[in-house]
Amino acid sequence: MRAIWNGAIGFGLVNIPIKLYSASESSTLDLDMLDKKDFSNIKYKRVNENTNKEVAWENIVKGYKIEDKYIVLEDVDFEAVSPEKSKILRIIQFVKEDEVDPALFETPYFLEPQKNGEAAYRLLLEALHKTKMAGIGSFILRDREILCMIRPYENEVLMVNRMRYPEEMRNYSELKIPSGKAPKPEELKMAETLIKSLAEAFDPSKYRDTYNEDLLRIIKQKAKGKNVKPKETKEPVGKATDLMAMLKASLEAGKRKVG
């Protein structure tokens, strides 16, 4: 793996030199965009909107528009913004993990200690594990301030979970969410029973991306000249009057699987 950020964790007065690595990768099949006529690859170009000519990477700069005029930013301008945060991931506070809404979580990263940081790294890892706490902090990554959580992962490595800022969450007030009338007591009791019947300890190894497996199987069939026909599926339907019947049928189906 290749490190995407070098710096340090600021833990009180302790600085732990670390490297940051991406902890996830896409499982999506790498599909190319092709011209339907001759299956040639489609290429994307950076084009000047006035001249329609392609612009080389070395001639591209970043700018912010103010009153119809662009203010061009250079590398030194980005370096001048919170210079400490570009080198130090400062832990601001410690919290219980379940106090943070999972909706705020984004990308996970692994942290690796650099030379002379091993002892302090292990200390923070063990302390977080013992206290069942996580650190909330921020740092600069690719010209953006990242809010993040630092926590033990499988008690073997420190993980950073990139987080969304609260203002990045959309307001759901425009959605048509039902309110007012409460569900019938018998329906609620049946729903609770169904939930409890399906409850078990979470095991992530039970889940995998089967869509890509199925798509790859279809690709291999087409490569052999076989025609593929999609299976007919019915649109799911459900009326309020069917709730009890559907709940009972769900419970019975669950019992048959267990049996």
Please, could you describe this protein's structure?
This protein is α+β, with helices and mostly antiparallel strands. Among the domains are: 5-27 and 80-167, Ku70, Chain: A, Domain 2, CATH 2.40.290; 185-230 and 239-258, no CATH class. Helices cover 24% and strands 26% of the residues. It is built from 5 helices and 9 strands, in the order E-E-E-E-H-E-E-H-E-E-E-H-H-H. It has helices at residues 75-79, 118-131, 185-197, 210-223, 243-258, and strands at residues 5-11, 14-22, 62-66, 69-73, 88-96, 105-113, 133-140, 145-153, 157-163. The strands form 2 sheets. The chain has a 7-stranded mixed barrel. The protein has a two-stranded antiparallel ribbon with strand order 3-4. Strand 7 and strand 8 (145-153) form a beta hairpin. Helix 3 runs parallel beside helix 5 (243-258). The radius of gyration is 26 Å and the shape is extended. The two termini are 46 Å apart. The mean pLDDT is 87.
In short:
With 259 residues, the chain is an alpha+beta fold. The chain is built from five helices and nine strands; from the N terminus they run E-E-E-E-H-E-E-H-E-E-E-H-H-H.
